[in-house]
């Protein structure tokens, strides 16, 4: 199995143009590399950012995709942690294990991530630039792969590769939701719904779900949202509506959309004195996010996250997710599956 493999992949030739599915050659794994057969992959909004014509930083052509799960097909020389047949999730956050950041339990950011030019484009997130998940086979470095439970359903746990981990972690690690907290999740896509799950798991007593697409509300409520609001239904700005409903704002707004306006709205409904506004959405185009010093002086905090702030815990999240899924099954049909199709 150390031959070149010919397979299909979705190639992005330039910004703003649709993918084209073409045959590619996937080289055998070199030293400390692993070739993975991708079984399932989600479609994260960040992949669509790279397709936005405003997104100038991308290196094209590129095979995108960073939310996959698969099975090890073959391993290169020197690989000891993986063998063919292992179930794995590729990590877009490298963990070199040696830099000062990897050695610190305070962060999940590896020094190698700061060496990549554009952290929201996928093509360079895995270090050698050869790996992506919108392909039937992909090659990744051994530090960019997590071995997961053999019983894990790959079509579901692929979401742990990005959306689930990011949203769930944003609630737990970034906003630090506590029992009894009030929360407001802006955007109920894959990331936002996972943030709702994180708020619920952390014991929040009130969880606002905000989206301009009301079709998201049923699932958000099933996952724990207590109040779903569509900004288009109100004359006044949504932060004012929330401030009135909560007598001054919520403890933990979590922005999972990625526009400057919704980030501002999230900060504007953060309660004074102790609120933490968590920024998860990635805005395209390098615009600034305006913050008045007075908002901070009054005790509001802003925190942001990359991949939910998790430190080396993809295998554990898979186990948590499997346990959570079992809990959900009693109430609904595979709730967690519904929010993202696999491509
Ligand atoms: N920080 C990280 O590590 C990280 C990781 C993954 C994704 N992201 C970012 O998180 C964001 C969400 O990703 P996703 O995959 O869930 O996206 P998504 O497109 O699936 O979901 C976005 C949701 O926001 C809603 N929405 C859009 N504009 C709105 C508005 N003005 N007001 C209210 N609702 C609005 C949409 O209807 C949709 O339901 C993206 O910006 C993505 O790039 C960041
Ligand atoms: C900010 O969020 C990160 C995770 O995204 C977390 O590790 C860190 O502790 C948070 N900082 C504060 C001050 O809460
Ligand atoms: C749940 O699953 C059952 C059996 O597969 C199906 O009949 C039903 O329509 C599903 N309900 C929803 C809400 O999808
Ligand atoms: Zn993503
Ligand atoms: Zn490192």
Automatic annotation (TrEMBL):
Domain of life: Eukaryota
Cellular component terms per the entry's GO annotation: cytosol; nucleoplasm
Main localization category: cytoplasm
One Gene Ontology term of the molecular function aspect: all-trans-retinol dehydrogenase (NAD+) activity
UniProt entry keywords in alphabetical sequence: Acetylation, Cytoplasm, Metal-binding, NAD, Oxidoreductase, Zinc
InterPro entries, alphabetized: ADH-like_C (IPR013149), ADH-like_N (IPR013154), ADH_Zn_CS (IPR002328), GroES-like_sf (IPR011032), NAD(P)-bd_dom_sf (IPR036291)
Compartments (UniProt record): Cytoplasm
Positions in coiled-coil regions: none
Pfam families on file: ADH_N, ADH_zinc_N
GO terms for biological process, alphabetical: alcohol catabolic process; ethanol metabolic process; fatty acid omega-oxidation; formaldehyde catabolic process; quinone metabolic process; retinol metabolic process
UniProt entry tagged with the keyword Membrane: no
Domain Alcohol dehydrogenase-like C-terminal: 190-318
Keyword Cytoplasm set for record: yes
Chain ranges of the Alcohol dehydrogenase-like N-terminal domain: 31-149
Cofactor section: Zn(2+)
Family: Belongs to the zinc-containing alcohol dehydrogenase family. Class-II subfamily.
Protein name, as recorded: Alcohol dehydrogenase 4 (class II), pi polypeptide
Originating gene: ADH4
């Amino acid at each position: 199995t150390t031959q070149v493999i010919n397979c299909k992949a979705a190639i992005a030739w330039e910004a703003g143009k649709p993918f084209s599915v073409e045959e590619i050659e996937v080289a055998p794994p070199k030293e400390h590399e692993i070739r993975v057969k991708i079984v399932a992959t989600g479609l994260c909004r960040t992949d669509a950012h790279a397709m936005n014509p405003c997104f100038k930083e991308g290196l094209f052509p590129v095979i995108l995709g960073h939310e996959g799960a698969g099975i090890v097909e073959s391993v290169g020389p020197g690989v000891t942690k993986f063998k063919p047949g292992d179930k794995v999730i590729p990590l877009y956050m490298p963990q070199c294990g040696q830099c000062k950041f990897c050695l610190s339990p305070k962060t999940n950011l590896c020094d190698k991530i700061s060496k990549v030019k554009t952290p929201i484009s996928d093509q360079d997130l895995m270090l050698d630039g050869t790996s992506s998940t919108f392909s039937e086979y992909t090659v990744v470095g051994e530090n960019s792969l997590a071995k997961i439970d053999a019983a894990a359903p790959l079509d579901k746990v692929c979401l742990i590769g990005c959306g689930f981990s990011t949203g769930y972690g944003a609630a737990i690690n970034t906003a630090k939701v506590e029992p009894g907290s009030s929360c407001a999740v802006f955007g109920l896509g894959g990331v936002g719904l996972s943030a709702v799950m994180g708020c619920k798991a952390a014991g929040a007593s009130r969880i606002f779900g905000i989206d301009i697409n009301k079709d998201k509300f049923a699932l958000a409520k099933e996952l724990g949202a207590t109040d779903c609001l569509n900004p288009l239904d109100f004359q006044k700005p949504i932060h004012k509506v929330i401030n009135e409903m909560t007598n001054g704002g919520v403890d933990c707004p979590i922005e999972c959309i990625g526009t400057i306006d919704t980030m501002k709205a999230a900060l504007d409904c953060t309660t004074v004195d102790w609120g933490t506004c968590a920024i998860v959405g990635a805005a395209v185009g390098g615009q600034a996010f305006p913050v008045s010093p007075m908002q901070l002086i009054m005790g509001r905090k802003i925190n942001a996250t990359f991949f939910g702030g998790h430190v080396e815990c993809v295998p554990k999240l898979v186990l948590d997710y499997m346990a959570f899924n079992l809990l959900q099954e009693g109430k609904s049909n595979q709730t967690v599956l519904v929010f993202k199709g696999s491509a």
